[in-house]
Amino acid sequence: MMLKELREKVYEANMDLPRHGLVVFTWGNASELDPDSGLFVIKPSGVDYDKLTPENLVVCDLEGKVVEGDLNPSSDTPTHAALYRGWGERGVRGVVHTHSSWAVSWAQAGRDVPAYGTTHADYFYGPIPCMRGLTEAEIEEAYELNTGKVILEGFERRGIDPVAVPAALVRNHGPFTWGKDAADAVYHAVVLEEVCKMATRTEALDRDVEPAPQYLQDKHYLRKHGPNAYYGQK
User: Which of 26, 104, 129, 139 suits 190 as a labelling partner, its CA being 20 to 30 A distant?
Assistant: First the structure.
């Protein structure tokens, strides 16, 4: 993919974050990886959305080093790079990080988001996991890089497929989502926020609520994502 085209795609993905009410001020970023070149485009750090252009986005390599651009990349660039290194071959080509309030609330509580209903099950196969908090040493050493490592470590330790569960919460921090491109990662960020909102309200109505039956979760996830999926149009 030409970098000009990739810049346009990542610009639109970043602009979709405030459009969907997922960011306040500059509290978010989106990126997309070009697997052929091994480069990804990401939002510059601290730039207001009304000043963002495709041209002032930053191009980085898979180590998170700037290869093109006059501005500093997002401070979360090492996290994005770690996820691309870990899961790029699994088809993860877009990453989004926000501080959307409902998802952050679950992250601050340090809780997985249970699959209480079919809306959740349509997009995430099982609970949305909350990763452990980083240690003081990890924060001092390389905070953003270690954030990515904690996500990768948590999915591996718990045997979670990042394609089937394209989202994670990092304890005391917030949500990360991913997908086949930046637009897909934004889509999952929007769904994650709604699912977190629904789960919060569900628990407020019934403190003893249980997750939806597994057979119902399976039906809803597999009819959209399974080998015999039939949801939508061909």
Answer: 139
